[in-house]
Specification:
The chain is α/β, with parallel strands linked by helices. It has helices at 5-27, 46-54, 65-71, 92-98, 111-124, 151-161, 182-199, 216-221, 231-234, and strands spanning 36-40, 59-62, 80-84, 102-108, 129-134, 165-171, 207-209, 226-229.
Amino acid sequence: MAAPAVEGAAVTALRAVMHRVRLAAERSGRRADDVRVVAVSKTKPVPVIAQVYDAGHRCFGENYVQELIEKAPQLPEDIEWHFVGHLQSNKVKALLTAVPNLDMVEGVDNEKVANVLDRTVSTLGRQPLKVMIQVNTSGEVSKSGVEPSECVELVKHVQLSCSNLNFSGLMTIGMPDYTSTPENFKTLLDCRAQVCKALGVAESQYELSMGMSGDFEQAIEMGSTNVRIGSTIFGPRDYSKKK
């Protein structure tokens, strides 16, 4: 029996993406299990997310705090939610309070938000929260993220001063059309090398979150361990209902 049209679109797309991830991982000498796929469900309704969940996927991401706060309580508690992108410090408490299964913040880009996250995790009695440092690898003035030259210092701050945060790696957001050049990805690789040298640890200890719908295969081939895929799974985004 054929699946409903909406379910078929999202679930079929998810399977196609996972197949492409596996092939890209193999081309880079790794297994598909070495790459996490964050299904970014921005602007998509809860029933569509639930269909992808029912197909076996467990890691989802959102870019807007309010949207994540509204969706998370309506979906299973074993979802691993990622908040992706710039997080304003004045929204940290609401986010952490409403989403106890927030697994990671991909987007810490300054000491202030790191400090607020650290204090809020402690106040709420949560387990330490995984975070990635967002790096502006494209040099766009409109893009959030720490400058590559300042990356090591911010990582050191999180490691030394934020005991309730677990530094997990580095992330970058692609160009406006959701594609990046190899140079952007190479910059993030270089940043990780500098961070690991400064901390005296192996590069494999920290993740790289780079690659979106338009460039995730190239990102994986260059070493990404975490890709954030939205429209390729869920279809075009609908901003008409956004506040």
